[in-house]
Design goal:
Largest sheet: 6 strands, parallel
Shape: globular
Number of strands: 21
Number of domains: 3
């Protein structure tokens, strides 16, 4: 089995069907029978076509990624949120986002939004910062694929007190120090904050990794030797509730150093492939998952750069050996993924019905945004969080008052406060436009404008 990404163009269509039906049909036309889509990113929208980068899983026998488990499965919510105010914050991985594209540097945004919410639902990329994870107490740590399906209405989330974690690491015979440091990091978590993880599985052979960049400039790559990982997850299935992965994403030393020393202007070289891996795990198994790249002791930046200070957004990764504590802390209380339709209506469940707003960087378009469009969820796009994606979100068929483009996350917080307060955001701006007045002609098929 192998994971990789493929670039395709999808013709723009105004056919009378949801985006998801059309996208599924067009994607399937351009894939081989043994290729299953696990992630879709629309990197650029043109007048006549979408430029798409599709994450592909190839070679999985008896794939469960059928119509029911497809990334394109959509269930429209029957009603909107009640008295609770819950927000989803997403910053896609590997797109070079100014905020949240480095090492947990969107954590302050998450804390700000969480202060306004009953629940803030976000994904690892927002708060993962190597040895730091400042997920707010009312935050939910949900892997990107699960978060997408949550917005698509096909799964629910259930709060838990804690999870049993399974740690899977690459067995590196040529570099046992990296393996030992990952296990040491795990044992530190068990001893200091009571992580429930007593089993470590070494993958032998390890995953085969090639780091690459896509046509759009996103970070991505190819992952092979997945059979051992799938076998391990199946064999130990009754011994864990969530899975943490620490595997070797070997980087060319020059690219590694360029990422750290280019003042935060380079795209994280391993973030995109990490996302592709966890998307696949969470699609195949309804469990929380997260990945950290195993430490590379063959690269020692301190040999020549001991006096170098790093751009603040990168500092958390620079000072970490294993990058692991952030995923262990996140997975410890990550909500349970509920897939059974008859359980989604239970009182302790959080579903798409309960979401008021989705906040994203401007220009980002994929299944989460399209899901929010069709679910009637308010979407706020933040212009200051520049990234590699090139889509005009204003061109989508939003309902009146459903889409807002704001300058920065502080303005987004003000907008969320207005929505939470139940007031029309434009009522606090000036001038206030007069209401439209129409006269309805009872014997006419159309209204008569005054």
């Amino acid at each position: 089995m192998i994971l990789y990404e493929k670039f395709i163009k999808i013709p723009f269509s105004n056919q009378n069907q949801t985006h998801f039906e059309y996208l599924k049909t067009e994607v399937e036309k351009q894939l081989q029978p043994d290729e299953a889509p696990v992630r879709l990113i629309i990197t650029k929208s043109e007048e006549n076509a979408y430029h798409c980068e599709i994450g592909i899983l190839k070679g999985l026998e008896n794939s469960i990624l059928n119509n029911e488990g497809s990334i394109f499965s959509f269930k429209k919510r029957k009603f909107g949120p009640g008295s609770q105010f819950n927000v989803v914050l997403m910053i896609p991985t590997g797109i070079g986002a100014e905020i949240g594209g480095h090492a947990g540097d969107a954590g302050p945004v998450a804390k700000l939004f969480a202060s306004l919410c009953d629940y803030l639902i976000t994904h690892p990329n927002v708060v993962n910062a190597s040895d730091i994870n400042e997920l707010p107490a009312n935050g939910m740590y949900v892997e990107g694929s699960s978060l997408t399906r949550f917005l698509m209405g096909t799964i629910g989330l259930r709060k838990v007190r804690s999870n049993r974690i399974l740690l899977i690491v690459d067995n590196l015979h040529e570099d046992p120090r990296s393996v030992n440091e990952s296990i040491n990091a795990l044992n530190a978590a068990r001893a200091t904050y009571g992580l429930d993880c007593s089993l470590v599985v070494k993958l032998d052979p390890p995953l085969k990794v090639i780091l690459e960049q896509t046509v759009s400039g996103r970070s991505s790559g190819t992952l092979g030797n997945l059979e051992g990982l799938i076998e391990a997850l199946n064999f130990y299935a009754d011994q864990y509730d969530a899975v943490a992965l620490s595997t070797k994403f070997e980087t060319i030393p020059e690219r590694y150093l360029d990422y750290f020393l280019n003042s935060g202007n380079s795209v994280n070289p391993w973030g995109g492939l990490e996302s592709l891996l966890t998307h696949t795990i969470s699609l195949l198994y309804p469990i929380p998952s997260a990945h950290s790249p195993m430490a590379e002791f063959n690269i020692d930046p301190y040999d020549t750069l001991i006096e170098t200070t790093i751009e603040p957004r990168l500092a958390a990764e620079w000072i970490s050996k294993t990058y692991m504590q952030c995923i262990l802390k996140g997975l410890q209380n990550s909500p349970k993924i509920i897939t059974e339709p008859d359980r989604l209506s239970l009182s302790d469940m959080i579903t798409a019905n309960d979401i008021s707003s989705l906040v994203i960087p401007d220009g980002c378009l994929g299944l989460p945004v399209l899901a929010a469009l069709h679910q009637g969820i308010t979407v706020i796009a933040v212009k200051e969080n520049k990234n590699l994606m090139n889509n005009d979100l204003m061109s989508l068929p939003w309902k009146n008052g459903q889409f807002y483009r704001v300058e920065n996350y502080l303005e987004a917080a003000g907008l969320l406060s207005a929505i939470k307060a139940g007031i029309t955001p434009l009522s606090v701006r000036r001038p206030i436009e007069k209401a439209t007045v129409v006269t309805h002609c009872a014997n006419e098929s159309n209204s008569c404008l005054n």
